[in-house]
TrEMBL record, chains A, B:
Species this chain originates from: Cryobacterium psychrophilum
Database matches in HAMAP family: PurK
SUBUNIT field: Homodimer.
Chain coiled-coil ranges: none
Molecular function (Gene Ontology), one example: 5-(carboxyamino)imidazole ribonucleotide synthase activity
Lineage: Bacteria, Bacillati, Actinomycetota, Actinomycetes, Micrococcales
Gene for this chain: purK
GO CC term, one of those recorded: cytosol
Broad enzyme group: ligase
Keywords, ordered alphabetically: ATP-binding, Ligase, Nucleotide-binding, Purine biosynthesis
Catalyzed chemical reaction(s): 5-amino-1-(5-phospho-beta-D-ribosyl)imidazole + hydrogencarbonate + ATP = 5-carboxyamino-1-(5-phospho-D-ribosyl)imidazole + ADP + phosphate + 2 H(+)
EC number(s) given by UniProt: 6.3.4.18
A biological process from GO: 'de novo' IMP biosynthetic process
Family to which this protein belongs: Belongs to the PurK/PurT family.
Annotated positions binding ATP: K100, K140, E179, E180, L181, V182, E187, N265, E266
Record protein name field: N5-carboxyaminoimidazole ribonucleotide synthase
Length: 378, 378
């Protein structure tokens, strides 16, 4: 019996599952949004993941359904489950990656540490929250945000009026999420994998560096994290995975506050940028682990292969070509660095690849990774 | 400009190029012998590599041609070169992987250490060689042998009469190769990559353990090889690569004799079983390096990632299923081990995959690798 995994979405996360699938002899099938996507090599179908018939027809060809993104509508996920298709993560878990208000409510119920937050439906409620939190706050749309979109720092109750107006026009109504502006020292991420039968496996907690709301660099493990920080991050991630019933890979983005607390920022229920270092830097990558987990196979060892691994994202790329045009310089200067090219056309600011390298000396490792990324992008 | 590499042959070597191609954004296209082969995911064509039109049509779709095997006829390779298609390795080099007599002649011309050998056309000549070499020798067909086929240990001049008879019926005539039966302590392999522009990169020399003429296990690096053995193996491999003009990956199989010499046994001009450990055990795998080399891109670092890496081949597999059926046991017992499943149907004795693991203690590493392979095969 060949193991067949269906991935909805044809982006770079699906693409990076291909090498792991090839190694394990897993028949990976991707339902891509359109032709020529990052995961085109494994695409067996092209269609709209918001169309029930398209998704059902795709699901009929695979043993288990998983995802490149979290945008498949709940009603479609639930229909798959009703038809007996294994869906990992399942709709009851994915809900909390799709809706930040529900996520905050659920994490609070579970007693997990989160920033102060409130559900707000109008500017008066925003004003009240601002008054209680030093006059500044973060407003987020409950749905549809990613890479900094749908997130706004506000200092005045009317700075989210356009979003309130949009909610009023939405037949489903709804509300915004407002959160305290956390004073944090740095951002961390804890990636964990969980099988349907319950086994979990965690990689070392990492430091993530964001620029313009987008992940730019990851250091694994997070410096000075051994001991309490690592333990608390691991406990939180396992509590989230078990509390919400996540299957597959879960990334828990955390704030390390200036007063030494860890607070949950965001959840991603799929392989995540903060885990890309694991392809080259850990015994089992997050992509292999995700495939193992959704197939309910035993999880692999997550040990870091180097003292330090650094991953740097590559944005944009050559204006008139592809990353490959820069390989001559980049690979010659940095033979230790592993390059990951997502096969996307260059566009200013677009995440088109990443590089990872590892070693004993963090400054040296960081320099190599950044220098290679600089060669590749404009 | 996307980098497009065409691979002739759809076996596991082409398959294992896929992950490296995905990472580097290389458009890998495979001309497979038939449907459903190991490298089917990357197959853009199915056809006979002995048919000129088939190969030319395939070559028209790629930037460079390389190989999963060494069996493409010289006249087809030369026609590709005549048409301006970059072919790596080229026909002038591949000749010496295709014909063992020519290989022995050329290595002897280059002054490289080889077993005593002779070109023989009849039993009288075999008898004379036996008389000069203690009454035993190895007879090999010049062409078409692999994995122990076309190789015979003989003690009598008439033990190769069937092969002489076959030669007589062959319109091209030809001869057999006879070699002294080398008294060796162990077998080693030195894998090297070479770019068209001349850069070479070598992995550590490895020990290969053969069973029934087929590679069973590889230990990287070869125990007690640091220093003279590693230096001599490296010098030989570079001399072969440069002397013959090999481009891409070259594996030089070596005998370490009981009197401490290294003699060249066989050459393979493609990624080779003795280099499979590098996927998990080296900074740059032989498959990534082969793609870099044939595209004339800078070569990657070849450093071993662990003190010891051990690769064990998996033969046969479950009689009534696939390797995947054994994952539950194998992966649970050995979370550190990396499994490579070639996606082939089980058949007694067939090489259907391999496993690799690494660590500090060779006995422990060897145990883990062997135990995992034992779980997977019958």
């Amino acid at each position: 019996m060949a193991l067949t995994v269906g991935v909805i979405g044809g982006g770079q996360l699906a693409r990076m599952m291909i090498p792991a699938a090839v190694a394990l002899g897993i028949d990976l099938r991707v339902l891509a949004e359109h032709e020529g996507m990052s995961a085109a090599l494994a695409a067996t179908g092209v269609g709209d993941y918001r169309d029930l018939d398209t998704v059902v027809a795709f699901a009929d060809t695979v043993d288990v359904i998983t995802f490149d993104h979290e945008h498949v509508p709940q009603e479609i996920l639930r229909e798959l489950v009703r038809r007996g298709v294994p869906v990992h993560p399942g709709p009851d878990a994915l809900l909390y990656a799709q809706d930040k208000l529900l996520m905050r409510e659920r994490l609070t119920e579970l007693g997990l540490p989160v920033p102060d937050w409130a559900r707000i439906e109008n500017s008066e409620q925003l004003g009240a929250f601002l008054a209680e939190h030093g006059g500044r706050a973060v407003v987020k749309t409950a749905r549809g945000g990613y890479d900094g979109k749908g997130v706004r720092v506000v200092a005045h109750e009317h700075e989210a009026d356009d979003w309130f107006a949009a909610l009023a026009e939405d037949a489903n109504g709804g509300a915004l999420l407002v959160e305290e502006l956390v004073e944090f020292r740095r951002e961390l991420a804890q990636v964990v994998a969980r099988r349907p039968s319950g086994e979990t496996a965690l990689w070392p907690v990492v430091e993530t560096v964001q620029r313009g709301g987008v992940c730019a660099e990851v250091i694994a493990p997070a410096p000075s994290s051994v001991g309490r920080v690592a333990d608390v991050a691991a406990d939180i991630a396992v509590a989230v995975a078990e509390g919400i019933g996540v299957t597959g890979v879960l990334a828990v983005e955390l704030f390390e506050t200036t007063d030494d607390r860890l607070l949950v920022n965001e959840l991603a229920m799929r392989p995540h940028n903060s885990g890309h270092w694991s392809i080259d830097g850990a015994t089992t990558s997050q992509f292999e682990q995700h495939l193992r987990a959704v197939l309910d196979l035993p999880l692999g060892a997550t040990r870091a292969r180097d003292t330090w691994s650094v991953m740097v994202n590559v944005f944009g790329g050559p204006a008139d070509g592809t990353l490959g045009d820069r390989y001559g310089q980049a690979l010659a200067a940095h033979p230790m660095v592993k390059v990951h090219n997502y096969g996307k056309a260059s566009r200013p600011g677009r995440k088109v690849g990443h590089v990872t390298t590892g070693g004993e000396d963090l400054d040296d490792v960081m320099y190599r990774a950044r220098a290679t990324a600089a060669f590749l992008q404009d």
